[in-house]
Amino acid sequence: MQVADQTYNHVSESIYEQEYEALAKRLNEFPKLKELVLMKQSNGASIDCFDHLLVKDTLEHVTLKLYGKPLLSVESLDLSKVAPLPRVSDLIISCLPANDDSLLYIMYKFGALKNIVFDLTGQIYKLEGNFIMHDIDEPSHFYSPPVVAKFLQYIMNIPFYRLDRFYICNSLQVLDHMPTTTLETLKIRYAEREEYELYADMSIDLRCDGTTTKDFLTQPKSPVEFRILNEEIHTCFIDLFGCHIKRLHLIETPVFEPQGKGHYLDQIFLFCNKLEVLVLSSHAIQQCNPMFRRSRSITQLSLRSMVIANQIFPELSVRLPLLSRLILWNCSYSDYNGKPKKNRQVMIDMPYTSLTSLVICYLFEYKEQRHDVLFKICTLNGEKFFNVIINGTNGNEALELDNILYKSLLAATLTVNYVIHAKSVDAIDFHADDKKCTIQL
């Protein structure tokens, strides 16, 4: 059942207020009611404005939507007057008022959830149909750090959850109140502020849909994603919390990072002494000074949609002595000065590294054609040569070659050639156009 006082969420008044109240009074006429959608103009009300309608213990699925500008409620919430709904397993909430009472109410009212979705469009709202973005993030100062930390933990203890763009201020204080296990698996996105984000330090995204994330293959839950907006936090986040991080996905580089210089890796290797998996994506890297500190904890490195200079590989080989799994996913390559190079010849020179797994993804321009991908693999056990045939719709296969046949195929104009130098390589998984071919060594 749906009970609403309006039909469009950009209208600033309750068009059907009388009808809303009349229908709300008739909810007791539905003794087996399991699903309820409540839509109401906020008028500065707190989230508990719905509470007199949320009394039926038969409810299992609840959707709460507050429209309009979510002003702060001046009245404090008395939880002793709130009755929990233990049968509700699914909750969808939009337009959350920016105060502690709203978070406390949700945690107390819905204590047995299996799925929760937060669509917090109320923190960025539309006014009178003009569709002009307005900044109302300043009230987020009224979220106190201990309550926000408790609320985030509440969500992450639910089997399935989604929280997008939850803006917070005093973010370092919030993180101080959270268990360190929360910070073990993180995705960090360094971003410049949008015009409607003037007051927030960062936004937090949480998501768990029961599937395994592609970033951290062994993790059943997606990482917590911090979208950092405050430049001061850009520089200190890893320093303060890096010691807790075991799996890190870094999207783009901090604002203080010179393009492609890789200085932020010095910070990660220094402070993240428990880091096991590092994923870097969507930026360029040309240098990684091998004379600086090494990381003796990282065993997996994944580079995704990166622009990589070939000289970075021997430098990483020095700085990551325990690296055993390397993933190069849809990367392009450059020379030392950052100028693009054709991907036909890729040199992966890691002389101090023993790889149990090397994963490479390459996207061909013409998918239906046959493509030959050559591999020259140099290890302490000698040289081996392979031709991976990507044959359009007919599948893939890997053929071992001798040196003479390898050199003859190398002259072909459509041939992609990978030269791999390492102490040892156990297996190479090559992905192209949704196809996979494995070379066992």
TrEMBL record:
What SUPFAM superfamilies does the database record attribute to this sequence?
A: L domain-like
- Know the name of this protein? Uncharacterized protein
Recorded source organism is Helicostylum pulchrum
Query: What does the organism's lineage look like at the top?
Result: Eukaryota, Fungi, Fungi incertae sedis, Mucoromycota, Mucoromycotina
